[in-house]
Amino acid sequence: MKPKLKGRHLAHLILMPAALLFVAPLAWMVLTAFMPDSDINTYPPKLWPEHFTMAGFTRIFTEDDYPLWLANTVIVAVAAVAGHVVLCSLAGYGFARIGFRGRGLTFGALMATIMVPTQVLMIPTFLLFKNMGLIDTLGAAIVPWLASAFGVFLMRQFFLSLPKELEEAATIDGCSRLGVFFRVVLPLARPALATLVVFTLLGAWNDLLWPLIAISSEDSYTLQLGLATFSGARHTEWSALMAGNVVAVLPLVAAFVLAQRHFVATMSFSGLKG
Amino acid sequence: MTVFAAQAGGRRRGGRRLLPDLTGWGFVLPATLVIVGLSLFPAAWALLLSLRDGDLLTGGDYVGLRNYSDMLADTELAAAAGHTAVYTVLFVPGSVVLGLALALALNLKIRLIGFYRTCFFVPYVVSAAATGILANFVFDPDFGIVNAGLKAVGLPAMGFLQDPDQAMLTLVLISIWGGVGMPAVVYLAALQDIPRELVEAARVDGGVGRHVLRHVVLPQLRPATVFLLIWQTITALQLFDLVYTTTKGQPLDSTTTIVFYLYRQAFQLFHSGYGTAIAYVLFLVTLAISGAVLWRSAR
């Protein structure tokens, strides 16, 4: 018993300061968002606000286009998540359960695209979207996020891990394929969907390179694009910058904490851990 | 809609071969169209673009392999490749080893373990734009908290992101802070899949912690390690966002990475043909490195 106890204390002794070091910058980001700039622009910098103020938040929501960028990002993220949930789970189920001609080849082709990096795709996609009139609209930010090969793969792996008997029973009871899918399979897929939703949300919400290329008018800016530009324009107004950061990061932290318990389990069936 | 129609109609006609085909395609077609239309098709188009001297507005003329041969003489590109290599060599082993260490610690059944896991993973969800603002604030040479801390313990202040010799190292540090949660989670999942009997048997046979780790646990984690090495290498070779939101390639171009250079060539100087050629070479290098890792791990 004795060595075990010692090991536990040692683990806390290492993990606690390391964990605090990891969250410290974020904690300080939140604190700075509530400080007046007079508290921030001193040396050495203040760790704790002497006067709490919402001025930073008021400023971003009234003086800048921040609310617009936030709304744009919410639209992009909702469309991305909806697209992924519907299209990737449909396709994942089709590839996992229905034997149709061309299945192997199509699935192989989709998986091959995972290897192709964004950098190869961005110039032709820019030209394609320009011809379609999508460039400089929110649509340009949305369309590439409607489905992904990774999402199809994730859902297929999950459906393969489900026992077939449930679906067979439902089919015998006279349920159609689509009925089986929506009434039997999808409700069981909640852990996989949670992972898919969080990864899609993470990617769509935080994307910078593609919006930077595809969108140039401030009306269609996403939050990340706004933040990246904003940081140059409002160089020393740290309370506003940090308030902007807090609002941009908070939804993802919340989504992650809510879905956290599903991650490790999902890694198992997707075969990532081998 | 087509799926319903196919099912109803198919059954009546008794088209037994057609029915699964139509149903299957009904399920996979929408996602397939999006992915093929926005991945396979542009990838093929990019290959053609890389053989022309287009400028994003006009298609330009066919120039054969000139874009590719131009890359050999491009000293700025060579410098960018060098910066990217330095970043990759530091970031990949750094994040994978630290991720493994964290996963081993986070796999313990001790109190507060959920809190610890959250702490190490949360920076992973913070965007490059937000990280960039935060990094500029924390590492500011004159007013930043890090230099204030160094001064408090009697060390000299440093330039960090504004010092050409330190900027890339600072970016590695920031990337590991933000990115180590991913390898940690993958390793954690792999650790939880190791049969408990295996570790217990090794313990019963007199294995000491260190030996059990080396001869029992690490071999079991091998597939995860291979996956992570490839994944993190791809991530590192494509570094762009953090550079854009912190240094913009400065100071003295010391943090200009391949993708940052590519972005500048294609979207600021409008050399889209040349940009696509760089992207394709980067893609081939990525494939070669991934292949090499897989080949080595298979032996």
Automatic annotation (TrEMBL), chain B:
It is a multi-pass membrane protein. Pfam families: BPD_transp_1. Keywords: Cell membrane, Membrane, Transmembrane, Transmembrane helix, Transport. It is found in: Cell membrane. The keyword Cell membrane applies. Residues 81-293 form the ABC transmembrane type-1 domain. One of its GO terms (cellular component) is plasma membrane. The chain crosses the membrane at residues 22-48, 85-106, 118-139, 167-190, 277-295. InterPro entries: ABC_transporter_permease, MetI-like, MetI-like_sf. GO terms for biological process: transmembrane transport. Signal peptide: none annotated. Belongs to the binding-protein-dependent transport system permease family. This is Sugar ABC transporter permease.
